[in-house]
Write a structure and sequence with these properties.
nine-stranded mixed beta sheet; alpha/beta; single chain; 48% helix; 9% strand
Length: 497
């Protein structure tokens, strides 16, 4: 049998391929592949989009496309087998078939269209794989709940609404006649479904988040995604954070979750860095269509002609304003992304205004830890040190202490050091200790040594000790050292009296 070969795609127009799954129950799965048009508001032909896992890269099964052999994975084969109707053809979009995966330019173009492909589908079909006895029990239970919902105006019910539990109890009263150990089987079914590889695949995030309507299929059973997302809560199963985040983005339910509040690229990378992808670049590309802040940036577009290191540099430039990162793998970069966040806020605190710091913290929120290093960097800010420190004290003051290193940084700040020292003494005087090293930093301050030392002596003169090292720091300061020495000598003379 001849092997199917793709016709070249026109990448200059909003075109994409669709698969016609021909009705029947024969052993061979027959299909046709044709081109359609995808516009921003609608597609020209109604279709369903499949969300699934490849289940490996080996093409151990095949289908027929226009009478020619086309290799697919076993998981996709069984999905098509279960989705094929005896009575009517189905029009589907399936990435492994509708995109020529060997053409990098075409892959990139379709990835950039992915959001529209899934949002304009009549519905998204989530294929979780073959059934077991326990998964059939929970799917039957959820299907019964879905049927019961038709008698209630439930569209605005949040997952935590007690009315869901009441309906579930009513459904279980009926189902206990069929299963003596119903609750245990339901819990086990949920656990097995949440362990399916689909929940770990990075591409499903965009597929589910862009869906207007979705249905979850397992074996021969199917239920609306909005009902499926309730299963852990109703059965008392605690999903891991990653699986719960996936459930949160399923379409249909009235939600009050992180998804409705914060969808920037950094947040998504932190929440979903445990996802899996056969191509490490997809850990980034799969999220671009659902972020709130990328907006098809010229630096961040799906481009498979770039290697992984270049993609890491592009993401680093977008998130942290730097490209000189030496990460050889995507997993290494993603594991260090929170520490990069701290490095970036430290850089902003040291060189930018309080407004820039506020904007960054607003974007990243609670993900940013205000460490000693951040406060120390702010204390070194020669132009806006006082404003940045004041902002951090007001908004996040409970997160950090004023350490010796912070005070040394302020004492050595050659322009705004005095202002920062005064602010710290006034706001956090109880934890400020003027040590020998702090006084040395002030005595060595090239431009503002006289002012900073005068401030320290005036406000904390009784605890200041003028040591040999402090005098040496002042004597080697060729710009303000004379003024500092005079202050030190006067202070010693007063102390002597």
């Amino acid at each position: 049998m001849d092997v199917f070969k793709y016709e070249p795609a026109d990448l200059e127009v909003p075109a994409f391929r669709l698969l016609r799954l021909i009705k029947g129950r024969e052993v061979d799965i027959e299909c046709e592949l044709f081109q359609a048009w995808l516009y921003e508001d609608c597609a020209t032909i109604p279709y369903e989009a499949l969300s699934y896992t490849w289940g490996g890269t080996e093409m151990t099964k095949y289908i027929k496309i226009e009478g020619k052999r086309f290799g697919i994975t076993e998981n996709l084969y069984w999905a098509l087998w279960h989705l094929r109707s005896q009575d009517t053809d189905r029009i589907l979009w399936i990435d492994a078939v509708c995109i020529n995966q060997s053409n990098n330019e075409e892959r990139g173009q379709h990835v950039r269209q992915m959001g529209n492909i899934y949002s304009q589908a009549d519905r998204v079909i989530i294929w979780l794989g073959p059934a077991t006895f326990a998964t059939d029990v929970i799917m039957d239970s959820l299907m019964q709940l879905q049927k019961e919902c038709l008698n209630h105006a439930h569209n605005d019910w949040k997952p935590s609404d007690g009315r869901w539990v009441n309906l579930w109890l009513a459904v279980n009263t009926i189902l206990r006649r069929q299963h003596l150990d119903l609750e245990r089987l339901q819990r086990r079914g949920v656990e097995l479904l949440l362990e399916r590889p689909w929940f770990q695949r990075v591409w499903i995030l965009q597929e589910v988040a862009n869906a207007t309507t979705a249905v979850v299929c397992c074996g021969t059973k199917s239920v609306l995604a909005r009902i499926f997302a309730l299963a852990p809560l109703l059965t008392g199963v605690q999903p891991n954070p990653h699986s719960q985040a996936v459930l949160d983005i399923m379409p249909g339910l009235s939600k009050d979750s992180w998804w409705s509040q914060k969808r920037d690229l950094y947040t998504l990378l932190v929440k979903f860095n445990g996802c899996k992808a056969s191509d490490p670049r997809d850990m980034i590309y799969a999220l671009l269509g659902i972020t709130s802040d990328v907006c098809d940036s010229n630096h961040l577009r799906a481009d498979y002609t770039k290697d992984t290191q270049q993609v890491i540099r592009d993401v680093s430039l977008f998130l942290f304003g730097q490209t000189n990162l030496d990460y050889r793998t995507m997993s290494e970069f993603l594991c260090n992304i929170t520490s990069l966040n701290i490095e970036y806020i430290s850089r902003v605190a040291k060189w930018e205004s309080a407004r820039e710091v506020a904007d960054f913290l607003e974007r990243r929120g609670g993900e940013v830890k205000i460490t000693e290093a951040v406060v120390e960097a702010a204390a070194r800010n020669w132009k806006s040190g006082k404003e940045v420190i004041a902002f951090l004290l007001e908004r996040r003051g409970g997160e950090f202490k004023i350490t010796e290193d912070v005070l040394k940084a302020a004492a050595g700040n050659w322009e705004s050091g005095t202002e920062v020292i005064v602010l710290l003494l006034e706001e956090r005087g109880g934890e400020v200790k003027i040590t020998e090293d702090v006084l040395k930093a002030a005595a060595g301050n090239w431009d503002s040594g006289t002012e900073v030392v005068a401030c320290l002596l005036e406000r904390r003169g009784d605890e200041v000790k003028i040591t040999k090292d402090v005098v040496e720091a002042a004597s080697t300061n060729s710009k303000s050292g004379k003024g500092v020495m005079a202050l030190l000598q006067r202070h010693e003379a007063l102390q002597g009296h």
